Amino acid sequence: MIKHIVLFKLKNFQSEAEKAEKMNEIKVKLEALKSKIDFLRDIRVDICCNPKEEFDLCLDSTVDNMDDLAAYAGHPEHVAVLKIIREVLEKRACVDYEF
Question: pTM for the complete prediction?
Answer without folding.
Answer: 0.94
